[in-house]
Amino acid sequence: MPDNASPVRQPAPPASSTALEREVADLIVQALNLDVTAAEITPDAPLYGEGLGLDSIDILEIALVVSKHYGIQLRADSEENEHIFRSLRHLVDYIAAHRTK
Amino acid sequence: MRVAAALPAGDHVINVCTDRYRFTVGFAAGLMAHKISLLPSTHAPEAIRQLKAFAQDVFCLTDDPQCEIDLPKLLYPEGSGEATPGDPSWGAQETWQCPEIDADQLAAYVFTSGSTGTPLPYKKTWGRLLRCVHDGASRLGLLDGRSHAILGTVPPQHMYGFESSVLLGLQSSSALCAERPFYPADICSTLAAVPRPRVLISTPIHLRALLTAAVALPDTDLIVSATAPLSQDLAREVEQRFATRLLEIYGSTETGQIATRRTAHTLEWRLWPGVSLTLQDGQAWAQGGHIEQPTPMCDVLELQGEDRFLLHGRMADLVNIAGKRSSLAYLNHQLNSIHGVIDGTFFLPDETHASSAAVTRVAAFVVAPGLTGTGLTDELRKRIDPVFLPRPLLFVDRLPRNGTGKLPHAALRALAAAHLRPAP
Lengths: 101, 424
Prior knowledge:
Helix content of chain B: 25-40%
Strand order of the largest sheet of chain B: 8-7-9-10-11-12-13-18-17
Number of helices of chain B: 11
Radius of gyration of chain B: 23 Å
Mean pLDDT of chain A: 77
Largest interface: A-B, 24 and 31 residues
Oligomer: heterodimer
Order of helices and strands of chain A: HHHH
Structural class of chain B: alpha/beta
CATH class of chain A: Mainly Alpha
Strand content of chain A: under 5%
CATH architecture of chain A: Orthogonal Bundle
Number of domains of chain A: 1
Mean pLDDT of chain B: 88
Number of strands of chain B: 23
CATH class of the largest domain in chain B: Alpha Beta
Distance between the termini of chain A: 21 Å
Radius of gyration of chain A: 13 Å
CATH superfamily of chain A: ACP-like
CATH topology of the largest domain in chain B: Rossmann fold
Structural class of chain A: mainly alpha
Shape of chain B: globular
Strand content of chain B: 25-35%
Low-confidence stretches of chain A: 1-16
Number of helices of chain A: 4
Helix content of chain A: 40-55%
Number of domains of chain B: 3
Largest sheet of chain B: 9 strands, mixed
């Protein structure tokens, strides 16, 4: 999987976020009842642990949403797995590449 | 024997191996070497620091070379020269003598979070642990002479996983699956890959995820759920879609497992043989059987005759998120110990209020003018299990304390209503 996140931290302008990023961010906020708006999720900030502060219960919930909306079953044994939840952008890249609906 | 010989001198071990086979071997090696396993409720840095104060010689057995726990570490020694079932030398090894472990030997301390900021240890002797798990195996129908394959979605380090995904296998001549699959697709494929009869040891969160995900559910001979009660509807759907029996287990860290129910058929829990409940001032106490000493239960229980009861939810101060228990008093103590926090309190929103989310989270109100939300959350992360991190964390000018300094629930609820968005 290409690593789109530059090691140099860039200010992530919301204008650069794609329609799919906004859609996925919306789904996450709704599914997890988060205290932020979708626009406040920085595409390159970590989702897990620090950053947005999601834990494994949330990740399972996101996996369900991704399965329902995009027809992708996430698997822990795929090599990409640890990259997928690195940031919203990584998750969205993965969805774009593997969606079946 | 090989692992037992590799253990360092300390008498206390924290076994954080994520692979269930390595955890089980590590635990057995500890028993043979007369080490005591410490099973804390979380591995947060503050909890580890408190464990070090409890047992200064504690060391950590891990199978992760990157393990960040701040203790002397022993990396699980992988087998070398040991025969496995595929090797020609398999079966030609010297006759193995099953070691005899004294029933009175102290096998483990299991910790609850306590309410004063210090985790409370509960002694578990080997004999009583086994009696508990043996009664459980009998109740689950695993002592029918067949060897079952047991797959767990729960970690072996917490009481339920320790009893039902580690000791249960040892006590019922069953096979343990080393994996701990996480995603629904992984749980199903791992389950489908093991021979029948097969048993899934899981939780309401995972079962709900399995039913929701569009994956093929393999026929399963028994599904066990614990950590939080299942609704009867969910239980019936699980039974139907896995073509299985689903049994729920009720227990606590303090007492171990004490009751089961077939939730699709009844809401009544049936106590294990020898265990009894009595009510004292409205609180249920459990004793007898494998229970070390009469123990107050943290849930509101209604007795239904000698060996049956109904569960009516937790006592007011307790929080149970995804099977991790804590008390508001403990969480408040940790919050108020943070430098810069003038006043603060956790708050458990009403379950119905948050019913759209899979899991009800705790919120917190804090008076801390010099701190940022991120900074405060980072401090909390060092002290409490991440599932209890407040969502949301709300900064206020003052808490609605009454004349005696107490925080009436109604006042907190009003404050919450003013700050929390209603569930969509």
